[in-house]
Each structure stands twice: as C-alpha cells, then as structure tokens.
Design brief:
Helix 6 crosses helix 9 (167-180) and helix 8 packs antiparallel against helix 9. Helix content is 55%, strand content 5%. It has helices at 12-23, 53-61, 65-75, 81-91, 100-107, 112-120, 127-136, 138-156, 167-180; strands at 34-38, 41-45. The model has no long low-confidence stretch (mean pLDDT 91).
C-alpha cells in the first residue's frame, strides 16, 4: 500500500492538488515515512519519493507560497540526493512550522553535504521555531540523532573522528539547545 502523506488542515487543499499532479509521474514508496505533530496536527511524509525530476522542478518553478513550499518539502524526500539538496537549500528560506520536520529529518540522513549546509545556516534559522518543533516532537529529534550517529559510524568517522564533530549531530544538537532555551523547557 502506498504511503499516504498527511498535512496540517491549512494545507489540505493545496496538498491534494499538488500530490495529484506529482503522482502522475511516480508512486510513493510504501510506508514507513515519518510522522510528527505541528501545533497538535499530524503531518505524515513519505520516506522517499520518486517523482520525475523535471515534473517536480516545473511544479516548484511555476508555483509560489505554500504550494511551492510543499513541493520543496516533497522534493526534500526525493530519491536523488542532488534533488534533495537543491530543494532543502531553497526550503531553508521558509520559516513555516510545517517545513521544519523536513529540514530536521535531512540532518539525520547520510548525505554529508546536506548536513554541512544545514549546520552552516543555523545563524539564519529561528531557534524559537526549531525549539518549539523539538519540544512537540522529542522522539523524532532523538531518532534523527540516532540515525546521524549511525551514518557517522559507518561512513563519516574518518572525516569526523569525534561524533560531536559530525555536521548532522551539530545541527541536531543546535535544535536540542533551541528546545532547552524555551521558557519552561525541560
């Protein structure tokens, strides 16, 4: 059974139209994907998408606002790491709460260039937004850290001898620190 993405209510009409357009060029990989809460509403995203790259780029270029942001979010889950990186670089310019899980998820993955870019951009990101997201989804952030540690151990240990040096871990530590700096954070 294909993974059925689920987005916050405010995006439901946009998501249905965009998914209908993109799904013509591929089928989503079966679940599991990831599920998080955004202001109490569920967001479920596929682990990987296999949209035709040209179709995805056309959707991104011909749209704006939430439709473009959602297309970039889905592109950040693309099977092609270069497509993921391109979409994530653009996604960082958007501070919508429902964009954050796609950014955080990317930090835990194996494409080192993405994690390096995310870590280099923390000065442009909102610690408050990322902290709130982490407070609402602590298990998700922990899972991303565990995956980043696993990829570090398998692939990046030679380049980054200490786990704390790995850019994905550094980014996720920044997210945790943002959560801890919130008023009444535990």
């Amino acid at each position: 059974m294909p993974c059925q993405p689920r987005f916050p209510q405010a995006l439901s009409d946009i998501a249905v139209a965009l998914l209908r357009r993109l799904e013509k060029s591929q089928a989503l990989e079966p679940c599991p994907g990831f599920t998080v809460r955004i202001d109490g509403q569920l967001l479920h995203a596929p682990y990987r998408v296999y949209y035709d790259e040209r179709e995805l780029q056309q959707c991104i270029q011909k749209s704006s606002g939430p439709t473009q942001q959602l297309a970039l979010c889905l592109g950040s889950r693309h099977a092609n790491g270069h497509v993921r990186e391109t979409c994530l670089r653009q996604l960082l310019a958007h501070d919508c709460d429902w964009v954050l899980p796609f950014v955080v998820r990317a930090a835990g993955e194996y494409v080192l260039e993405i994690a390096e870019h995310l870590t280099a951009q923390t000065h442009r990101l909102s610690p408050h937004s990322y902290g709130r997201f982490a407070a609402e989804n602590p298990e998700f952030v922990t899972t991303c850290k565990q995956q980043a540690a696993s990829y570090w151990d398998c692939y990046h240990r030679q380049r980054y001898p200490l786990l704390r040096q790995h850019p994905g871990i550094r980014f996720l530590r920044w997210v945790d620190e943002a959560r801890q700096s919130l008023p009444h954070a535990d």
